[in-house]
Amino acid sequence: MGDGSSGPTMDLLRSEPMQLVQLIIPIESAFRTISYLGDLGLFQFNDLNAEKSPFQRTYAAQIKRCAEMARKLRFFKEQMRKAGLSPSTKSLRSGDIDLDYLEVTLGELESELIEINSNNEMLQHTYNELSEYKLVLQKAGELFHSAQSIVAAQQSELELYNTTEQSVERSLLLEQEITMDPSKQVNLGYISGLVAREKSMAFERILFRATRGNVFLKQSVLENAVVDPVLGDEVEKNVFVVFYSGERAKNKILKLCEGFGANRYPFTEDLNKQFEIISQERYFSIDASERKKKVSGRLAELKTTIDVGLAHRSNLLQTIGFEFEHWNFLVKKEKSIYHILNMLNMDVTKKCLVAEGWCPVFAKDQIQNGLRRATLDSNSQIGAIFHVLQTKESPPTFFQTNKFTSAFQEIIDAYGVAKYQEVNPSVYTIVTFPFLFAIMFGDWGHGICLLLATLYLIIREKKLSSQKLGDIMEMAFSGRYVIMMMGIFSIYTGLIYNEFFSVPFELFGPSAYGCRDQSCRDAYTAGLVKVHDTYPFGLDPKWHGSRSELPFLNSMKMKMSILFGVAQMNLGIIMSYFNAKFFGDNINIWYQFVPQMIFLNSLFGYLSLLIIVKWCTGSQADLYHVMIYMFLSPTDDLDDNQLFIGQKFFQILLLLSALAAVPWMLFPRPFLLKKQHEERFQGQSYARLDGNDYPPEIEPHSVSHNHEEFEFSEVFVHQLIHTIEFVLGAVSNTASYLRLWALSLAHSELSSVFYDKVLLLAWGYNSIIARGIGLSVFIFATVGVLLVMETLSAFLHALRLHWVEFQNKFYVGDGYKFYPFSFASLGQDDE
């Protein structure tokens, strides 16, 4: 495949030359060897143990160990996220930490953090319960206090009434009531607690139904939400007190509290003091105040303890965060090395590992230096062996890209990865993609807005690349250089169209046209007259707003679209020639490239020639008539539609050439491929006598198998489909390029409508508010419709023109990417 060279070719047109390599590595230096190759990032390993499950491989235990450490690191990251901390963004250290020491450290930190979290949760649960208990004491106290106030008022009335003449009789009755048999008295109990406010109505309704109305419920609304001890979330709650009579009612109330998630707190359990609670104010006030003091003191102690625990937890997480990225990278690196080691084969002596993989030819010396360094650093007595293998397997495709070209390469790879050594369309896409976009988006005001937005992303790319962006922002950031080129080309085409937010300017000199008189009354009837030299660059500003603006721009942009479309399709067919020449495929050159060029240019190349001739000569010939009657009546005279001498004979010649190109594409290629295959089969059947690498008992079977694989009918049908697709596609693809004209016209008209019907209309009012509203609507419409929706629309149409109209002429795209083993990508990948 070639010898190692000092550096890459950096040829974006074709893939870097690749080679299949076998490495024989002693076991004692295997780990360092893989590590150094990961640092180099230029070797793609093949899995030689694909038939084995992950648990049957040699280093499954080490990978499980790394996975456990990665789990602990994910736990630390989640804890830091909950605490509002982020890992340190400082650069990773160069020195490695012993994995055993790291494993012990992570285990100790995890145990300590789990213990801190457990203690904190327990303390927080107790604190939340006491907080709720304090609120119950406060609100229930208010309820009892109001009841006691009513009782006191009633007692005052009773004392006043006892001074009357029935005082003796009522005193006897009261004494009789008090000295009544205690067994006949009604013993009331009550349950207090908190229930969620959203459940309070249902709680009250079901409580009434379950006890058949034999309870008395009193609720008090809490002004602020409280932290629920069970859920740990802030919940709006009500304090309730339920009075009941009997154990049966009590059990029902307890079950309902449990079902509704109501937290119960004791107020008093002494039934003998219920009467005192209602009648004696001093008991409650003393008891409640003492309880409040005790609860408040306990809350202050818990708050101090919790704060100390949280401070210790925060310090521990900050310590972890400072080392987190370094530890995370080391664990990922270790795991990836063992994953690669599991892809290697153990030789029969159990002393060496055998690796196979792809690497660029230029990386041969760098890989060999890495192997030698690994041997020296591991004190191995035997060095690793680097052996280039010969293979017929298609190598992976590898393009050396940078931050500017990578986005354009991603556009191509989204269609399909280039076959090995196939022409890479991204070389031309760097120019053609933003240019076709700009044809549809031609406005140098809008182009400046795009350019400024992308310059902001480019200037701050170092900072933004280290941040997590949203999906849309991430796409815009990754394609910032594509958008920058789109903005630059839009400024260029906007200057040609002479449009700045649809407003023309005389940037390159005065207009070539003027009015016939100072009043300009006949400007839209008799037209303008030429008073200066032709406008030096782009469209003359006088065209804008004239009655012939739309017909003129339509004609110009439509013909311009056809010219650019035919030119790009010709470029695609020419690329197929370079592909065929590179691979030595003369059949494709003579029976695919040549007839395709003849067919396309006999029809649409000729149409492009007529457009240019008409522009240069100023002829009034009808090109529609010329192209239609070129097929319907090729022998008729052209009369006024003749653009040059000999045009009739030339058209007949082109028509016959186009008709001859169709069977030229269809018939010879399948027969020549069949003949070529038979000659190759005969050559291979006699090649063994000259000494071949394949064993004699294997080769005849493989050769006959290859011979049987050639199906002439399949090849012929495929060629028929390809021929029909190209012939019909030549028409449809050319028509498809008219989208350049349609979108350019739509963009120009939308911009003109927003300017004339929004901004100028608002500016006609002598009101600052009306002008402000008009300017706001104009800005939002311009940004939302023209700079966002129109940009996306033009981008997608330009993408389609490249994928379908351009790349289907030469691009196969059935290759696979070169994915080297590299530690540089570990920081971007999540577990």
UniProtKB/TrEMBL annotation:
GO molecular function: ATPase binding; proton-transporting ATPase activity, rotational mechanism
Official protein name in the record: V-type proton ATPase subunit a
Keyword field: Hydrogen ion transport, Ion transport, Membrane, Transmembrane, Transmembrane helix, Transport
Chief place of localization: membrane
Keyword Magnesium: no
Membrane topology: Multi-pass membrane protein
UniProt subcellular location: Membrane
InterPro entries noted in UniProt: V-ATPase_116kDa_su, V-type_ATPase_116kDa_su_euka
Statement: the UniProt record of this protein carries the keyword Transmembrane helix: yes
